[in-house]
Amino acid sequence: MKKAIHTDNAPKAIGPYSQAIQNGGMLFISGQIPVNPATGQIPEGIEAQTEQVMKNIEAILTEAGYTFADVVKTTCLLSDMANFKPMNGVYAKYFPENPPARAAFAVKELPMGVMVEIESIAIK
User: Fold this and answer.
1) Which residues of 27-48 are buried (b: 16+ CB within 10 A; e: fewer)?
2) Per residue in 77-95, pLDDT tens?
3) Contacts of residue 9, Cβ cutoff 8 Å, sequence gap at least 6
4) Is 104 helix (H, G, I), strand (E, B) or coil?
5) Among candidate residues 47, 41, 56, the one with its CA nearest the CA of residue 113
6) Phi and psi torsions of 60, nearest 5°
7) Is the pTM of this model over 0.85?
8) pLDDT for res 21
9) Burial, 109: exposed, middle or buried (Cβ in 10 Å; 0-12, 13-18, 19+)?
């Protein structure tokens, strides 16, 4: 059965979508941008932005009863492929073993002018 997941520990949706949808043992997390949910601020720099995105993903995973070990697929969207290597350095800390399948793309623009957005799929 389809269930919307929401936590105040991740940014509120800025459009008509859920932070995540759980269906059976699958969790589909919407693209997370680096908004600090407590302050509404966006940190400076690609490493700090990636760190905030991963914290937002972690908050949603936790709310739904999952961990990063359950993540099987991510899609990383970057405002500039020059940011791939530093984004990857932060991202790798969250997946020390058996990292998920992943795609990474540079796009013309991301919401709120951020440098990175990451969506995730987790399965139990």
Assistant:
1) bbbbbbbbbebeeeebbeebbe
2) 999 999 999 999 999 999 9
3) 37, 59, 62, 63
4) strand
5) 41
6) -70, -45
7) yes
8) 98
9) exposed
Handedness of CA 52, 54, 58, 64 (dihedral sign): positive
| Helix or strand run (H / E) with residue 31 | strand 26-32
Question: Has residue 44 got a pLDDT over 90?
Answer: yes
Residue 109 dihedral angles phi and psi, to the nearest 5°: -160, 150
Q: For residues 73 and 101, is the Cβ–Cβ distance under 8 A? A: yes
Q: Which DSSP symbol is given to 98?
A: S
**At 74, which amino acid appears?**
T
Q: Is the pLDDT of residue 15 over 90?
A: no
Q: Report CA-CA distances (Å) from 16 to 13, 30, 44, 63, 64.
A: 7, 11, 27, 20, 20
Domains of the chain, by residue range, sit at 2-123
> Which residues face 20 on adjacent strands?
5, 29
Which architecture characterizes domain 2-123 according to CATH? 2-Layer Sandwich (3.30)
